[in-house]
Each structure stands twice: as C-alpha cells, then as structure tokens.
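Q&A FORM
Asked by: J.P.
Topic: structure of Glycoside hydrolase family 13 protein

PROVIDED:
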Amino acid sequence: MGNQGDTKHRSKPTLACALAAALALYALPAIHEQARAASNDNNVEWNGLFHDQGTLYDSNPEPGATQAVTLTLRTFKNDITSANIKYYDSADGTYHWVAMHWTANDATGTFDLWQGTVPASASEKYYRLQINDGTATAWYNAAGITSSEPSSGDFYIIPGFKTPDWMKNGVMYQIFPDRFYNGDASNDVTNGQYTYAGCATEQHAWDSSVVSNVGGCNSAVFFGGDLAGVDQKLGYIKNTIGADIIYLNPIFLSPTNHKYDTEDYTKVDPAFGSNTLLQTLAADIHGTANGPKGYLVLDGVFNHTGDTHQWFDKYNWWTTTGAYESQSSPWYGYYTFQTWPNTYSAFFGISSMPKLDYGASGSAVRNAIYGSSTSVVQTYLKSPYNIDGWRLDAAQYLDAGGNNGSDTTNHQIMAELRNAVKSVNPNADILGEFWGNAGPWTDGGDQWDGAMNYDGFMQPVSEWITGQDYNGNAASIPSSQFDSWLHGTRANYPTNVQQVMSNGLGSHDVTRFGNRAGGDIWKTYLALFFQMTYVGTPTIYYGDEYGMQGGADPDNRRTFDWTVGTSTNSAVALTQKLVAIRNSYPALRTGSFLTLLTDDTNKLFAYGRFDATNRIAVALNNDSVAHTVTIPVWQLSVTNGSTLTELISGTKYTVQNGQVSVTVNGHYGAILAQ
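REPLIED BY: S.T.
REPLY: Here is the structure written out as tokens.
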C-alpha cells in the first residue's frame, strides 16, 4: 500500500510488546481480589483488559464496505474513566478517534464492557485502543498492552476480505500420495521402468526403507500409493479421524516420486491414476457416502517446472521444441537463461527445476498458469474437477527475481492469482507456503487467504513439547515463552487469516514430530490437544495421528502403517475424540483466545476459547508427571456455581471463587466446557 500506517503496521511486533502482553496475563491467582478493589485511582489495571476480534468483541469480523464495526473492550468494573478507538484509515492516510462508552457488566459483575463504532467504508483500517484512568493511560493492540503508544501490531479492519468458512471450521489431512495407500497395484512403478537424471526407478515393498539402493536416487523410489488408495481410505480420513479437508502433495505427471518437478500440469501421473480418477476422488470427497462433506486442496507447483516439461524439454522427450532445445521455441521466454542452454535460473539452483519467468502482467506464463479460463489454476477449480483450493509451493518466489518475497512483482502476481481463483470460486482457498511471517501476502486481503504456519505453530509447539525445532535441533522454551511466541505471531495476521492458517505438527519438508518427541506417544497426545483447540486449521500430516517416526527428507515420507491406522490405536482414538470436540464447539474454531495461566516451573499452560454460546478452558501439562492445575475461569466470565464438563473424561467441576482445579496427567490435557 505504501502509506505510513501500512508500513508501520506490517513491521513485526517488538519483543517488548509481546513480553508486555504476556506479562499482563501471568500471575493470575491474585487478580480476582484486585478486581474487587478496582477504582478510578489513576491506574489502569492491565490484568482486566481484553479485546480481540472474536464475535463477542467485534460485531463484524469480516465486514463489507457498507457495514460499520462495533468494537467491545473489557475492563475491570469501575476501573477506567474513558476509552477510545484510534484507527488509521488508508483512504485518507490519517488517524481518526472514536470515543467508547460503557454498555454493560459481564455475568460475574467483575468486568465492565465498553463499546465504540468504526464507521463503514471500503478502505482498509488499522486500530488500537486507548484506555484511561484519570492521568494514567494504557494502549491495547494485537501485539499487546503498553504504557506508551505502539507503532506496530494494530488490529485490522479489511472490508470485503473473506477467508473460506470451510477452512476456518475444518480439519485438514495432508497426504504424500505414493506413501499413503496402494489402491491399484496395476499402475505401480516397477524396477527400471524408466531412467531419469541417471536414476532408474526402484519399486520398494510397503513398510521398507525409503532410501534408494543407488546413492543419490531417493526420488526414484516408489511404493505404489495412488489416488485409488486415497479414495478407498476416505472412510478412515472422514470418519475414523474426522478430517474433512484433504490436501494432496503434487499429483501431476513427473518422473520423481515427490512430483515437485512437473512434466505436465494437464495430466495426473499414471502411477497415481488418471484425470478421470481425480474427478471421481473429488466427487467422493465432496460427497457424504463415506462421511461428512469434504474439500480437496491440490499442491500447485508454479514457481518452476521440471526439466522434462514440454516447455523446457531437456531430454527431448516431446515431439515439440522446448526452450532448452531451441531459442526459437515458443516457450523460450518462459524461462530465464544466462547462457543458453545450460545456464538458467532454477529453484535454489537445482537444475532439474528450471524457474518460470512470469514477466509482466498479461504474459504468456501468467496466462498459462492462472490468467486464462484454460489455465492450470482455473481448470481444476472448475467442473469436472471442482477442487476447493490451491496450496502454493515456494509461493514467495513466483517472479523473475525471486527476491525472497521482497520483489513487488511477486505480490502483483499473487493479487492476480487471487482474482483468477475467486472469479471461478469465491469460496476457494489460497494457502501459501511460507516459513516466516506471511503478513505481506495476507494483510491486505488481496493475495493469500492463509499460509502454512511453520512460524506461528509448528516451530513453537515443537520447541515447547519436544525440546527440538522442526529440523530436530536442540531448542527448548518454557511455557511463558511459548505463550509469548504464540501471541506475537497471531498479531502478524488479521483474525480471519489466523483462523485459516494451516497448523501442522510436521510436513513433508521437516522431521517427523514423533521423531522429535523421541517416540514418546504422550508428547503426541499433548500436541494433539493443543492442535485441536488452538486458533487455525489443524493439519494432520498423514501418520502424525499415531506418532509416525521419520527423520529428515526422505525419511519423513515413510509409508503409512495400516496396522496402527485404526481407532483401536490410542493416539488415533484420541485424535478422533479431539476432532469431534473441535467440530462440536464453534468457540474452538472462531472463538476468542485468552491466556489464563503459564507456569514455567511445572510446565503448565492454560487458555480460554469462548464465544456467546460456550466458554471453554484448556489446560495443558508439558511435564512428565501429573499436576493439579487451578484455572482462573472467572477471566472467561464463568460465574460461581457454574458447572464445567471435562470433555475427554466427562468429569464435572463446579466453579468456586472463580476457579476450578483439575488434575492433568503428564504430557496430556483437559478441556473444560460450559
């Protein structure tokens, strides 16, 4: 956008902001007494403040251009003298003030609720709250609470920006097709069936080693998994697990098992089936004969092709003339050659993956990939495939320069791609692959819907529970830092983006969570509790539901063990239960999130998810021994005498003095719902 407010807002929240927010929510047991003593004493009680863009605090989380947005602020009763909304409007490049007024008390009588309304318009806005008690002032924005006015980390209002509700409310299951299930042995790749890049294909038996018999040829190892296998196991995915979104790693024609080096975007790889079978699979996913209605997301590898693609044709596999064969090729301009033919731009310098040159708007490459009605992106979104979204591989590199996302051309491409996708299906999802703060692609509402949440979920969860980062390196954080990390990374995104971020414990690009957990299935249990109750779309990388082992690529792509892929397996059964709980409570999907407790000594973390219908407290124990956790549920406006039901065990608890105490096993959790 280029204006001052936009630039300031998109800078990453400072550590000071994140820590201030975190500190404002710790040491809670003493706060209830403070609440009763709150008064106009020139001191804003930070521990009573709360606002987010859940439906209790934001009247229109995804407003249209004609809808005003009424915001609600919670404070301790009688604590403040005034409050204001200060918002930056991108239309005029200036800040505006809206006075808030007292409206009500909460059910417990502990809190006051203040409201103010930001008027309707089509322009993007950022806001922060100013809270005053006489001469004292506190500022509140997405990054946290501060005593001086912040310069970054504001909340967003983006009229007209909607992320798919099915993604907000769903659970995704990621499948590496060759390794999931062999549903049709007749299409299996056999030993020596073909040779590519000096590697002859190897057919390995299911459950055997993923490492090639010939050094350096791991991409030539095939096990026989296919689309027929996915189709035959939809009952497991939809019913046993309860997932309703299936994300497939690449399925188009390619000489390797991973298929990130596309040979033909128009053709499903024969080892996986056919285009007709893809149509059948999509219809079966969308249907209800094998479980609830589902959704299909395909992997779009659009940064580069394979060197065997017709457009490039390094090995003369096509009867047409590719860019590698002749500078007169109709596709010569699709690639960037430094010295034709052997020196060209490639994905991370990997010569088998020549990089596409998207050129200027309206270029042939842009039209072929997404811009025309017959483009790759649009073709699969339409009948007879009707897929529901694209996961964009290496998405920040889709430009000529590939400057790690800093190239403005990349953002132009992504805005055009979004228009193309939404013109076919306004409810389709655009999921970008990005490993850091994906804000530049999501915060304007004109590019991606969300991203793979390596930075805001996979990495902190791994470090907190396993003591390793997602690559298996030693890295351990205490509960308070875990909470700070989560808070800071949530602040990077509009709320409706947070709700569709893909939250996985692992992926095809990192070590398996089960490996990082040292094979301790209880750590998988704990991770599942968090995954299914946190903000975002839970994404299960096939096998993570039972703690599949596996080191770095290719070991993270082992075959699925169907002897444990059943509800008789304790981890699978817990996954099923947790998914069912998530599906039963909208508060766990689109409700507010509030930290209730962190305890570094005992390795505890508790938080609330709540909306107008339900108030849910989640307690997690990251220690190896059981602990009794006293949860301050008054922070969720749960009244004394209320009954909370622990949803795994069914045990009921009565709220006394604003609290409930629950004993939680080591590396386990409790979910208490009102």
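FOLLOW-UP: DSSP finds 18 helices and 33 strands in the chain.
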